[in-house]
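We read letters as residues; the integers encode the fold. Take this protein.
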Amino acid sequence: MSACATAEPPPSGRIVTSAWARPADSGATGGAYLTILNADSVAVELVSASSPVAVATEVHETMEHDGMSHMMPRTTVPIAPRDSMVMKPGGLHLMLMQLTRALVVNDTIPMTLRFSRGDSVMVRIPVVSP
């Protein structure tokens, strides 16, 4: 008797993991962090993000210059084929500008991530105490 195993096809598209956001007051600026896996065989770029809890959502990168940290906005973030892009404190991150409500621990916030290939991913990001 022989057994045939069928291999699962590799995942495709974008897979978001390790998402979290910091608590913040209404009207303030909040930060969100996550990992995006580009499971496709072609490169893709994160081109925008949006959330109903903020007037605007921007991708920023913390850069060191002359011993000082500066946050620089990024218009796009490339993700190589079958590679991950990590957003974390002190590096790439999502800035939630002019929060329309407070972000409280144990809350979740909806966010839509849009990519250069025309697809988008909707995620629910938990608010946690860092």
About this structure: The mean pLDDT is 92. The two ends are 55 Å apart (CA to CA). The beta strands are 14-21, 30-38, 44-50, 54-65, 68-74, 77-79, 83-86, 92-99, 108-115, 120-126.
